[in-house]
Each structure stands twice: as structure tokens, then as C-alpha cells.
Amino acid sequence: MGVKRIMAKVFKRAVTWDVLPFGTVIIAAAGASERMGGEDKIFAELGGLPVLGWSLRAFQESPYVQEIVVVTRGESIVEAADLCVELEIAKATKVLCGGETRLESVLIGVNEASAKAEYIAVHDGARPLVSREVIDGAFRKAAQFTAAAPAVPVNDTVKMGENGFVTRTPERDSLFAVQTPQVFRADILKAALHNAKIKGLAVTDDCGAVEAIGVHPALSQGSFENIKITRPLDLKVAEAILEMRAEK
Prior knowledge:
The protein has 248 residues and is of the alpha/beta class. The chain is built from eight helices and twelve strands. It has one domain: Spore Coat Polysaccharide Biosynthesis Protein SpsA, Chain A (Alpha-Beta Complex). α4 packs across α6. The chain is globular.
């Protein structure tokens, strides 16, 4: 189905769910981990589990998810598959080798998702502390608006710059830090990713690909605890968050 035909149906089908549809989550975990010194960060230990294990457990527990597809490095496929077995992640159906870019990796996962998938979520494997509330909230928002992403307000003042000088200070009230999982109606996400690949669009997340075909994702409630593990310091912050949760 072409992009124009999909867009003509977007708002007609944007309704809340009486019965939960089939939801698939693609866990994108094929990054190079360059800022972690080359170590595959999704297998770094965090609170007694590999980083990837926390995300797997969270999606296993969500009633909105019926299928989990992991896309990882070629050399990490066996380790990721073993982890799914060890943690009894019954919803995990496939562990795939990713592409050279994030877009290619997500597209590989989406193309291998079940034909039953009505909604597809994409989650960064390096966001281990995602909660059930954030996951379920993103799916519910997608039910209303066909596309949704969790977000939190930006607390810092953000500057735009060029050649080492400030050129503009955007209004902070209009700025949000967008997280994952980002949830989309399956046909929209597929069309958006293929469009981005064909046109060579430099998108940094899946919302960017969807925006390029004229869909504006809704913002659902994110969490300041839903951090992304990028550098070694982030692991220490994540450990502190887990300790705080354990004390509640």
C-alpha cells in the first residue's frame, strides 16, 4: 500500500481498543557501543542481569506485547538467544542480525515481525529501566493517534549554535526529550521506514521516519528513570535507580 493511501486512512482508524490487538516490539540492540569502549553494552552487567535482560522482562510482562523480536550484532545472536531462554521470555520469537545502520536494523526486525502485528513498537536495547507504565502508556496513546512516543520535558536551557557561537535559544516549554518504546500502527511504520531507506533520510529515531510521511506522533508520559546506557557513567546511574526502586 502506498504512503498516500495509508495517510488517507490514518484518522479513520485512530480509535481506542476494546480488545487488545497483536503488538510486536522490536528491540534494537545492534549498535557499535563505541562510547562504551567497544564492549557490547547490552550485555554489560546491571543489577545482576545483562542490560538487555531488563528490557526483555519489561516487555514480557506487558499485556500490550504479544511478540518480541531482538535485533543485535551478528556475534551476539547466540548470547541474546540464550538470555531469552534463561529468563523464560516466552514472547521472544526471533533474534536477528542487524544492519549497518539503526534504520537498517529496525527495518530488518519490522520485516520479520509476525503478519498478525497491528502495532509495532521499537525500543532501544540500551534503555533497560523502561517501566510497564511507560510501555503501556505509549501503546494506549498510539491507539488514539496511530503513533506515539514517551517523552519528558527538557530541564536544561538548550542553545542552537553554529561555528562555535550561539545562534538561537529555543523556548524550553516546547522541547521534549523523546524516549522509547515508540509505538506505531504497523502499516505506517513499514511505509515510513521503506520511504526513509529509499530516500536516504538521516533519521535518528523512528518518529523521524514517520514524520517524513506526514504523521505527527503523540507524546505519551515518559520517565526520567528511562535512561539510555551510552557511557560507563550511565551504568552507575542505572544502578542507583535500581537501588532506589528496591527501597520503595
